[in-house]
Design a protein that fits this description.
Layout (H helix, E strand, L loop, with lengths): L1 H50 L24 H22 L3 H12 L5 H6 L15 E4 L6 E4 L4 H14 L14 H10 L8 H11 L3 H8 L4 H12 L14 E3 L6 H8 L3 H7 L12 E3 L2
Antiparallel strand pairs: 1-2, 3-4
Helix pairs in contact: 2-3, 2-5, 2-8, 3-7, 6-7
């Protein structure tokens, strides 16, 4: 009886041990599975950090070959700013070398793209002056009439303005220019083209257009002083013309008294006449006007 009881206890113990082992194994597997899931979850969160593409950097890469300044896009404001920046230099050069300030500024605007052209920005060359044989300074290469031509390079734009004056006064082919009246910007514009400064057949028209649109001839007058002969002569001739006794601008429109801010262009638009007709009717040598001056408009 004792033996049967002992055998029964051993059997129960063995069965209990075998039944508890799978529970332990199952618990460990569950823990392992949970750890793997946590690792997978952690890796999943980190993965986008390394695979996310970096944003592309926007860079304005420019070619080494400089574009012609005639293709430079500018605004009226930029041109006006250019004039304000360099008008004093232009007037100083007019006094020193006899080149009209209006021509200097118009050439600077056209040749440098109002200072925004690549040649002006890279070499401070505002007048498109090439190296030539006598140039010993720095230079840059630029496609112009031919590929990769040599152009002069300056440390400062003011050096370019001075060299422009020396270039014109030092070359015999430009000697004829200095026989013109200083205020005759049209003769200068045409003379520059005839002397070979530029190959563009419309070069004179472009210069004259800038001078008249932005009234650059006023700086010629300032540089030459108050006793500018053309102004006095023009006023005298106009006063001597007949039918100029009416002082009422809104009445008989055969004459008109120049007001502050008037230009030949604005007056021509007001009375629907051509600028050249106004100049011819009033014996005007250029576009210079003075306040109170009377003009024949019909």
């Amino acid at each position: 009886m004792f033996k049967k009881t002992l055998l029964l206890l051993i059997t129960i113990t063995l069965i209990g041990c075998n039944a508890s082992k799978p529970a332990i194994a199952t618990t460990k597997k569950a823990a392992t599975t949970q750890q793997k899931k946590e690792r997978v979850a952690i890796q999943t969160k980190k993965k986008p950090v390394y695979t996310k593409p970096e944003p592309k950097k926007t860079t304005n890469n420019t070619t080494e070959v400089i574009e012609s300044t005639s293709k430079t896009v500018v605004t009226n404001t930029l041109i006006s700013d250019y004039i304000s920046q360099y008008k004093d230099i232009a007037m100083g050069n007019m006094k020193s070398y006899g080149i009209p300030a209006s021509i200097i500024l118009a050439q600077g605007i056209l040749e440098s793209g109002a200072g925004r052209g690549d040649l002006a920005l890279s070499s401070n060359n505002h007048f498109g002056i090439k190296c030539h044989k006598d140039w010993v300074g720095e230079s840059v290469r630029h496609d112009d009439d031919s590929a990769q031509e040599c152009f002069r390079k300056y440390k400062d734009p003011s050096e370019s303005f001075r060299d422009h004056a020396l270039f014109l006064t030092g070359k015999s082919r430009y000697a004829t220019l200095f026989t013109y009246e200083k205020g005759d910007y049209k003769a200068w514009a045409k003379g520059l083209r005839a002397a070979g400064y530029a190959t563009d057949p419309k070069y004179p028209e472009k210069l004259i257009s800038y001078i008249e649109r932005y009234e650059l001839h006023q700086y010629d007058n300032i540089a030459m002083g108050k006793d500018y002969v053309v102004i006095e002569k023009t006023t005298t001739v106009v006063v001597a013309k007949p039918n100029t006794t009416n002082n009422n601008n809104s009445g008989n429109l055969s004459t008109y008294e120049v007001q502050k801010g008037d230009t030949l262009y604005s007056i021509s638009k007001k009375f629907n006449v051509l600028v050249d007709d106004l100049k011819q009717k009033n014996n005007l040598a250029d576009n210079t006007l003075s306040i109170g001056q009377r003009l024949i408009v019909k």
